[in-house]
Amino acid sequence: xxxxxxxxxxxxxxxxxxxxxxxxDLMLAxxxxxxxxxxxxxxxxxxxxxxxxxxxxxxxxFERKASTGWHAEKNAIGRISNAGLSxxxxxxxxxxxxxxxQTERIMVPCGPCRxxxxxxxxxxxxxxxIMAGVxxxxxxxxxxxxxxxxxxxxxxxxxxxx
Length: 162
Prior knowledge:
The chain is of the alpha+beta class and about 160 residues long. Helices cover about 30% and strands about 25% of the residues. The strands form two sheets. It has a six-stranded mixed sheet with strand order 1-8-7-6-2-3. Strands 4-5 form a two-stranded antiparallel ribbon.
């Protein structure tokens, strides 16, 4: 047996430390969050995807009793043009918190959204995630660090033992 260790780091920073473009994305995610509909959980989430061609797409979560609803990240993915998709994901910004709460707790994408974002980011360039609560500090991390062992068919197809 061999033990494998993975290490990663992420930045915790004040909102004013973001670049102007990152601040714009944060503002778009905050605006998208205002459109969220979460009658079951009360968790209001907004997201902004920035593609390498400069295109931005926002999304918000919405819940329904009879279905799983949509997460903010998947909603934003569905709103990207083909040109944006082919250029690759540069950054996703996620803002969330309970309705009416002024939480500083950082919102992170769920597991299935991480997988979808990672597949979207497979352009050969780095993609980042900016994670924020309604107020307070934000986190910034490489997307691949959020899901280090992604489901990737290429891993199997490139295996020399096949």
